[in-house]
Design a protein that fits this description.
globular; mainly alpha; disordered N terminus
Length: 407
């Protein structure tokens, strides 16, 4: 597929499939950004239409042949979701449909036809909106409608971790600037978990670049200084160093105001777990959120995506998520995809303190991260089958051409 893109670019031919796939990807995240700025049923309808469009286009182009595991995962989600609908009633049929569509969108977003810069564009759009809102309204004003600025990091990380994961999978160079910018805006926004998550990502990028064989001594000095700079604010916040001298600063005072323990968050998690342990049905299928006082207080936010997964999909969905996370990290270690691992760690950590995923618009991000090994293996098998078919059917000893690829 890479050779095909190169050939088409040299001849000036526009790859309409790549253009269409990439456009749908950008539109998906752009609509999330728009919905976060203006609550509109029209925008929400357009977002769900894009989800359907992506899945329909993917199957219509017959790129889904052999996608057995993804279908199996979707079936498992349906079973867990239906059990929750019957016994707990946290999940609705509409939300379950969104989850299933999100699983299928994983193979869409990671397809060779989707250029990784599509996610960079989506990140840049979020960056532009967030920066403009902070400059125009100040750092303490909310960036999103009916949402705190804790979610600044979430919406920056969402397309960014997919962007870096695809670059790593495709063996391309990793630009540092997007991760550094996400870190800087998260610092200004004052989100504690977001700053740490972005530090994990940018720190991983810096360390990987520092250890690369082609990195010069001068570059290592610069990278080391950058790493030191991004770690200092985090260490000040976590260890509460020099608080008496720096409490007047907006960023530090914002973090130290409530501390890292989250207060109400811990109470919320504790209450949910206590109510879950009251019966086997709740352990298996989830706990009614309308019975958790702290969730009602936080207007439906459990402040923990893993508990949200349990609330919607029960113990089966939670175990699946955790197992797939561990498996993805092991896969990254075996394949030496270190940036991919840093992306998983950053996004997974961010999910500990907020509703980042769990049958919502951004659930597709964690699904992409944990299912990427399946998609890559499946595509490798498909590629080998095509090569085998090509070798068996091409009797001409000269160059053979199939599906636009020059062999």
């Amino acid at each position: 597929m890479k050779e095909d893109f190169a050939l088409r670019n040299k001849t000036g031919y526009v790859d309409l499939t790549q253009l269409a796939f990439s456009a749908v990807t950008v539109l998906y995240f752009a609509l999330i950004t728009a919905i976060n700025q203006v609550k509109s049923s029209i925008l929400s309808g357009a977002f769900y239409a894009v989800m359907f469009l992506g899945v329909v286009v993917y199957f219509a182009t017959k790129r889904s042949f052999g996608m057995g595991r993804i279908l199996l995962y979707a079936a498992g989600a349906v079973v867990c979701g239906v059990c929750n609908i019957i016994f707990i009633e946290n999940l609705s049929s509409v939300k379950l449909l969104i989850l299933v569509l999100s699983i299928f969108l994983v193979v869409f977003f990671t397809d060779e036809a989707v250029h990784e810069n599509s996610f960079r564009i989506a990140f840049d759009l979020n960056l532009l909106v967030i920066t403009a809102r902070i400059l125009l309204r100040g750092r303490s004003a909310p960036v999103f409608v009916d949402s705190s600025n804790n979610y600044v990091s979430v919406h920056l990380l969402a397309p960014l971790v997919i962007y870096y994961s695809l670059l790593d999978a495709r063996g391309k160079k990793m630009p540092l600037l997007p991760a550094i910018l996400s870190w800087g805006l998260s610092l200004l926004a004052g989100g504690r978990g977001g700053l740490i998550a972005c530090t994990i990502l940018v720190g991983g990028l810096l360390i990987s670049r520092f250890l690369a064989d082609e990195t010069t001594r001068r570059e290592r000095v610069i990278l080391g200084l950058l790493l030191f700079v991004i770690l200092v604010p985090v260490m000040v916040i976590i260890l509460e160093l020099f608080t008496s001298r720096f409490t007047g600063l907006y960023v530090v005072s914002r973090f130290l105001d409530k501390g890292l323990d989250g207060g109400g968050r811990l109470d919320c998690w504790t209450e949910y777990i206590q109510k879950t342990l009251q019966s086997g049905t709740r352990i298996l299928f989830g706990t009614p959120l309308d019975e958790v006082g702290w969730v009602i207080y936080y207007k439906g936010n459990l402040h923990n995506s893993y508990l949200f997964v349990h609330a919607y999909l029960g113990i089966g969905g939670l175990i699946f998520l955790l197992v797939m996370l561990v498996r993805a990290i092991i896969y990254g270690i075996r394949m030496r995809k270190w940036i991919y691992i840093w992306c998983i760690l950053a996004f997974s950590f961010r999910a500990l303190t907020d509703h980042v995923f769990g049958v919502n618009r951004l659930s597709v991000v964690i699904l992409t991260l944990i299912l990427l090994p399946d998609v890559l293996r499946w595509r490798e098998v498909r590629k080998k089958k095509k090569e085998s078919f090509h070798a068996n059917t091409c009797s001409d000893p000269g160059p053979c051409r199939i599906e636009g690829n020059s062999q």
